[in-house]
Structures are given as structure tokens and as C-alpha cells.
Specification:
29% of the residues lie in helices and 24% in strands. It is built from 15 helices and 24 strands. The chain has helices at residues 8-16, 35-51, 68-80, 93-103, 112-119, 141-146, 183-196, 214-226, 239-245, 256-263, 288-298, 370-375, 416-424, 460-468, 496-502; strands at residues 25-27, 32-33, 59-63, 83-86, 107-110, 130-133, 163-170, 176-182, 204-207, 230-233, 251-254, 278-281, 303-308, 312-316, 336-340, 353-358, 365-366, 383-391, 397-402, 407-409, 412-414, 429-439, 443-452, 479-483. The chain has an 8-stranded mixed beta sheet with strand order 2-1-10-9-11-12-13-14. The longest helix has 17 residues, at 35-51.
Length: 508
């Protein structure tokens, strides 16, 4: 008996081929694509990449703008068994060197504008056979050269543990970790979310998220394609455009920043949202104030859920039932969650401790880091999320903090050590501490606390300019604060909790 095929594209196909001519993707400039289009275009890309020597298991590193063609590329990698390695388009060359050396891709695909710069990188890896381009308008050598490729492609028969995607998430040490997500991980979570959020082919998802991380790539697209729903596809979030498209949509997914910006739109009203079935929020904590303001304005209670790159989604407030503000709901079906103390003993109701998760959604481990993988899993197979949480009497989970110092700004993860390392390289700076502080728009804003070797030897503008040369824009400090010394505990460790308390009202 042949083993089950866990290929995520095959799972999508089973649903989508039932309605081959249905409009599945409708772009903001009026273009539309049905399953026949998607099937053909992804087959051509898969055929071409296989023809130039890419094999199942090889990594394809991708740093491109969001477009329908970038989605076809992702689907091509899935169906051919290639490992999709998405990179934030904002990453600078100094950041790319590590990612490419570590992932050792066979192909690198980027925007035309960045090709020369990326080709000139001093990489240790000799794995890259070819550099291809794909631009935000759908042009580029990848599309041009794949036009002549076969438009029929036999989808790779994929075991449960075949690697589908490699996403990087930096650690508190500043060294990024490659997170290995299998086809089985993605199929399991997409099927669970489709059921939990009651997606059907009648739905129209308003897709405004980027597709270089879990939220836009796996959660949104997975739910839509696994239910044969349509997507109103816009390449970048624009509050005015969202307001225009909401009457033609039924589901919207966004980070908390999206919701605060919608609330700032004068035309955003209950009438505009009358066709909507559900608004879903994730990637960062949703303020209770935003939850209540949104409900008062629209009549909709935002559905907040909780996930992370290593696990996809773990919990969700219900479609039918109480959505508690300040919580991320109970565990999703098939996901086990527990809160434990430092000795791994399970804590009772409303006791704050370390949140651990177990299930088929949990990643395979860290790329080339078996020791780190072993450390982050308990002996009985639970993954240590690094988040502090509590579980109430109804089983709803509240994330109350992070044991790691990670900052979530605009739904994107920022790791202080990475920024501190860059700032500390500036000659006149003795040391720095980077923290996240509350911000009405971004959720958290990056703030650098700096100790100078000599007073007034450098200003805020120069420090930010220096970091801008080396880091993506979303990682840049929104504010630099100069101090004589950093607060430390008796062990000499910088007390970032003290700094956060001192500056919690900086942007209010």
C-alpha cells in the first residue's frame, strides 16, 4: 500500500480542482487567477527549476516583493519538494550573508534592483548554482525563462516529515536559528484552522499581509486554498484600500497595527463591515483598548489567536462562543498546551509560568542546530515557547510576557541583541540596551538606551543612521535615550524590566 502523500500543494489541489474556473486571486489592479492559472504557472516554475538542477530537499532562497507570481513560486516549491526559504525584502546585505551561508540554497531569487548587490556578497557557501530575479510587477528572469517550461508537473510524493520551508528567527544571543517546518506541520495546522475558523468556498479573504512569514504565508493562504475560498489580494497594507475592499470580503487577517490604523480611518464604519464574517488578529498582542474600540465601532469582536514561527497556530478564541479580550483563547484541536514552573511541574489555574506546546503543528527542529533543538524541548516532547502565560478556569490562555527579550513591532519580531551588537560597534559608545515600549500604532516600538564614553560625542540621528546601513527598517530604534549607566542586578545583568518600566509612557 502506497504511503499517504502529505504534499501541501496536493492537499490544496484536491479542493481547488473542484472549481477550476473560479476566481481565486483578485488583485488590486483587477487581474484574476483561477486554479487552472495557478496550476499551470506553478508547474512551469517547478519544471524550470528542476531543469536547472534543483532537487527535492534543496533550498530556494527568496527575497522578493509580494505579487501573485511570488505566490506561484511558493506553490512551485511545495509541489516539487523544494524547501522554500523566504527572506524579508527589507533585509540588508549584512543580514543576508548569514542567511545564505547557513541555508546553503541552490537558487537565490531576488528583485532586479538587488541582484548586483547580492551577487557581490562575500559568501562562504558554494551552493548557489544560479541567481534569478522576480520583481513586484511579475517580471524577471524567473518568469521569462519558465515560460517555455512544461506546464504539466507531477507533484512530488511527500512524506510527513519532508521539509517544506525554512524560516529564520533570531535568538536572544543574536544568532539566527533556522526553523524547519515540514509538509506534515503545515497540512495539519491549515486543516485545523480551516475547521476552527469555519472557512468555506463562499469566503473571500482580504489578504493584505506580507508573505515572508507564517501569518501571511501559511495561515492566510492555507485557510483560503484548503477551503477553495477566494482572496482579494493587495501587495501592501493600505488602510484606505482595505476600507474599499471590506464590502467585497468576508474574512480579514491582520496584525494589531492594521486594526489601530483602520480605526483612524473616518470612513471605517459598521456599514462597511456588514458583509464581514470575522476579523482575525495575531503576530503581536492585541490591546484590550483596541478590542473594545473596534467592537464599539463595527459591532465585530476581533478574534485573537496565538502562534509562533516554530509552531504555526497554537490557540484561538472561538468563532462561536466568547472571545475574551486579553486572551488568545483555548488550545486548538490536536494541540496540547501547559504552563509549568522552572522545574517543569505543571501549574494550576491562573498561575503564571512557562508556556509549552506539543502537537503535529510543532516544527521538526532547528536547522543544523541539534543541541539547541534538544534544549528547547522537554523530555516528554513539549516545546518551550519562551513565553510566560496563564490558563484561566475556562481554559483560555493569556500571554503575560516573554522570558526572552524579543520585541514585536508591527507584527514583526525584533531581537535586541542584534541591534545592540551594531550600536556597540560605534566607537564612542560604551554599551547599549535595546527594549520594546508600548506604542499605539506598532504595538511595541524599538528604543535604544545608550551609554557614551564621553558626553555629547554622538547624537540620536547619527546612531539611527548607522543602524540603518546594516539593519532592516523595522528593526531601527524609534528613539535613542542617553544615560550615564544602565541599571543592573546583583549579578551584573542589565535589568531591562526596569528600563521598560521607566520608559513605558515614552510614546503616550
Amino acid at each position: 500500500m502506497k504511503a499517504k502523500n502529505y504534499n501541501l500543494f496536493s492537499c490544496f489541489s484536491e479542493q481547488l480542482e473542484r472549481c477550476p474556473n473560479k476566481q481565486l486571486i483578485i488583485t488590486e489592479d483587477g487581474k484574476s487567477f483561477n486554479f487552472n492559472d495557478i496550476n499551470t504557472e506553478s508547474a512551469r516554475i517547478a519544471s524550470y527549476l528542476a531543469r536547472v538542477g534543483v532537487k527535492p530537499g534543496d533550498r530556494i532562497s527568496v527575497q522578493v516583493e509580494k505579487s501573485p507570481e511570488s505566490l506561484f513560486l511558493y506553490l512551485a516549491c511545495l509541489r516539487a519538494g523544494f524547501v522554500y526559504h523566504p527572506l524579508n525584502p527589507e533585509y540588508k546585505t549584512t543580514e543576508l550573508v548569514f542567511f545564505l551561508d547557513d541555508a546553503e540554497p541552490t537558487i537565490m531569487i531576488c528583485d532586479d534592483r538587488n541582484l548586483k548587490k547580492i551577487k557581490s556578497l562575500r559568501l562562504k557557501t558554494q551552493s548557489i548554482k544560479s541567481f534569478l530575479t522576480l520583481n513586484g510587477d511579475g517580471s524577471g528572469t524567473l518568469i521569462e525563462q519558465s515560460k517555455s517550461a512544461e506546464k504539466i508537473y507531477k507533484t512530488f510524493h511527500t512524506p510527513n516529515d519532508h521539509l517544506a520551508a525554512l524560516l529564520y528567527s533570531s535568538g536572544t544571543t543574536g544568532t539566527p536559528k533556522g526553523i524547519m517546518l515540514s509538509h506534515g506541520n503545515l497540512v495539519s495546522n491549515a486543516a485545523t484552522l480551516k475547521q476552527a475558523w469555519q472557512f468555506t468556498e463562499q469566503d473571500v479573504l482580504l489578504h493584505a499581509l506580507p508573505i515572508f512569514h507564517v501569518h501571511g504565508l501559511f495561515v492566510a493562504i492555507g485557510c483560503a486554498f484548503l477551503s477553495a475560498a477566494s482572496m482579494n489580494w493587495i501587495n501592501k497594507f493600505n488602510a484606505k484600500k482595505i476600507v474599499q475592499l471590506l464590502p467585497q470580503s468576508t474574512v480579514f487577517m491582520g496584525v494589531p497595527t492594521y486594526y489601530t490604523r483602520l480605526l483612524s480611518e473616518p470612513n471605517f464604519s459598521k456599514e462597511i463591515c456588514s458583509n464581514m464574517r470575522v476579523f482575525i488578529s495575531g503576530s503581536a498582542p492585541l490591546l484590550e483598548e483596541t478590542f473594545r474600540s473596534f467592537r464599539n465601532r463595527t459591532g465585530h469582536s476581533i478574534l485573537e489567536r496565538y502562534g509562533m514561527t516554530e509552531t504555526n497556530m497554537n490557540t484561538s478564541n472561538p468563532i462561536s462562543g466568547e472571545r475574551k479580550p486579553g486572551t488568545v483563547g483555548p488550545p486548538l484541536p490536536g494541540v496540547k498546551l501547559r504552563v509549568v514552573d522552572q522545574k517543569n511541574a505543571i501549574l494550576g489555574v491562573n498561575k503564571i509560568g512557562n508556556l509549552q506546546v506539543k502537537g503535529s503543528n510543532v516544527f521538526m527542529g532547528y536547522w543544523k542546530m541539534p543541541d539547541k533543538t534538544a534544549i528547547d524541548f522537554s523530555k516528554d516532547g513539549f516545546f518551550n515557547t519562551g513565553d510566560k502565560a496563564k490558563i484561566d478556569e475556562d481554559g483560555y490562555i493569556s500571554i503575560v510576557g516573554r522570558s526572552k527579550d524579543m520585541i514585536i513591532t508591527g507584527g514583526l519580531n525584533v531581537y535586541p541583541k542584534e541591534i545592540e551588537t551594531i550600536i556597540d560597534q560605534i566607537e564612542c559608545i560604551n554599551e547599549s540596551a535595546v527594549i520594546g515600549v508600548p506604542h499605539n500604532d506598532f504595538g511595541e516600538a524599538v528604543v535604544a538606551i545608550v551609554v557614551l564614553s564621553q558626553p555629547n560625542s554622538i547624537d540620536e540621528k547619527t546612531i539611527i543612521s548607522h543602524t540603518k546601513e546594516k539593519l532592516a527598517n523595522f528593526k531601527l530604534p524609534k528613539k535613542v535615550i542617553f544615560v550615564e549607566k544602565l541599571p543592573r542586578n546583583t549579578m551584573g545583568k542589565v535589568q531591562k524590566n526596569v528600563l521598560r518600566e521607566m520608559h513605558e509612557n515614552l510614546f503616550n
